[in-house]
Amino acid sequence: MDTHECFHWKGTEENFMKSFNVFLGKSGQVCKVINSLRLHLPSTLKYILDEPNPHDGINILSIGSGDGDMDIEILKIVNEEMQRHRPGHAVKMFNRAVEPQVHALNQYKNTVATRLPKELSNASVVFDIDRPESFEEYVTNIKETVEFDIIHFIHSIYHITDVEKALKHCYEKGLGNRGAIVLLLAGKDDTIQLLRKRTTCEIIHFGSDIVEIVRQNGWRHEVYRKDYFTDVTQVFDEESIEGNLLLDFFAHSEDFRLNDDHEKVKITLDCIKEMSTFEDGKFLAKKHEDVLIIFK
Length: 296
Fold this sequence. Notes:
Blueprint: H1 13-27, H2 29-49, E1 58-63, H3 69-85, E2 91-98, H4 102-114, E3 123-129, H5 135-140, E4 148-154, H6 163-174, E5 175-186, H7 191-199, H8 207-216, E6 220-231, H9 241-251, H10 256-259, H11 262-275, E7 277-279, E8 282-295
Parallel strand pairs: 1-2, 1-4, 2-3, 4-5
Antiparallel strand pairs: 5-8, 6-8, 7-8
Helix pairs in contact: 1-9, 2-3, 7-11
Protein name: Histamine N-methyltransferase
Pfam family, one: Methyltransf_23
């Protein structure tokens, strides 16, 4: 992760991915996000496709692309909707990826080169995957101007220092005359974000904070909320490998239980316990996600 991020992972990129993958497995977040996008993206695409655009396809800018798996899911949704709205027309999509992590970007390139899903076999998809870079670096070094129909931040807006400046750039200079910015955000009741706000001095942007920025700029938008729970019981077991990796993700620090101040570890665990629901012998932490769609 780059040095401009609002919160910093203390450790190696490899160990961040290990802890993140444990979190994804425990939370089922990927499936939840895909379900949310399948629910809300079609109406957004209908809005975009109701008027023809000069490039006769869909241009997508992905900020915080990760390993590309979520980008592929979004492309599948876009492909389905374009076939539905324009039957018989060849589907054309351009997808530019912006991602600061070297390991994740290499995985992305490998996915594009070797295992694109059959659902995209009927479409013409052009990927633009350059070097690892943050959003700020991307904006500074834009190589060519593209009018995007969709710009999305899937749980990645937190990594940007000046959120309002970033959104204004995307709205005014990134989107074409008609388009949408799609954001997946942690809501105000999300345990992880509440924990970071309580135990660190980091600037935490909740979904409600970003919605307020959008309101102040007078942009048309829609917000959809989804709540679910993650079993975090193992974080209280010192001997659990998965539990320690999950705790690392919550604290955003490698080997947190082993290396950090004992009092800080205790406070963090107490906070997780306090904010969790205890049910059937398990501690369940709330995940609160907001889907925010900004229309232009």
